[in-house]
Amino acid sequence: MRLEVLDTIENPSRILAGGEEELLAIQETEKDKFLVVIYSELNNDGFIITAFLTRRIKSLNRRKQIWPK
User: Fold this and answer.
1) Buried residues in 31-67 as b, exposed as e (16+ CB within 10 A)
2) pLDDT single digits (tens) 29-39
3) Does residue 52 belong to any structural domain of this protein?
4) CA pair distance 2, 42, nearest whole angstrom
5) Domain-embedded: residue 63
6) Would residue 62 count as lying in a domain?
7) Which residues form the domain of 47?
8) Is 3 helix (H, G, I), strand (E, B) or coil?
9) CA distance readout (Å), 9 to 22, 44
10) Helices H, strands E: what count in the chain?
11) Which residues are CB-contacts of 46 (< 8 A; sequence separation ≥ 6)?
12) Binning pLDDT at 50, 70 and 90, where does residue 4 land?
């Protein structure tokens, strides 16, 4: 799912704050199924920490939404 992960970072439906300085990019892949990509940005560069599929979006909705505001 390499291309889907990169697309989620480039075109997320929303971005949430992580526990530290990481960000969570979220994109719906199917009805009620979401791809979550956890990544970090440092000095105009970034790297992917991990990515996973989930249907449990309620736990993510508790996090602070960074984009769109």
Assistant:
1) eeebbbbbbeeeeeeeebeebeeeeeeeeeeeeeeee
2) 999 999 999 99
3) yes
4) 21
5) no
6) no
7) 2-57
8) helix
9) 13, 14
10) 1, 5
11) 9, 39, 40
12) very high
Q: Global pTM? A: 0.92
Residue 43 lies in a domain: yes
Alpha-carbon Rg of the chain, whole angstroms?
Answer: 11
Tokens 């105009």 belong to which residue?
44
Asked if pLDDT for residue 44 goes beyond 90, the answer is no
Question: How far, CA to CA in Å, does 13 sit from each of 9, 25, 43, 59, 67?
Answer: 9, 8, 24, 17, 8
Terminal-residue alpha carbon distance, the chain: 28
Give how many domains the chain has, as a whole number.
1
Adjacent-strand bridge partners of 45: 42
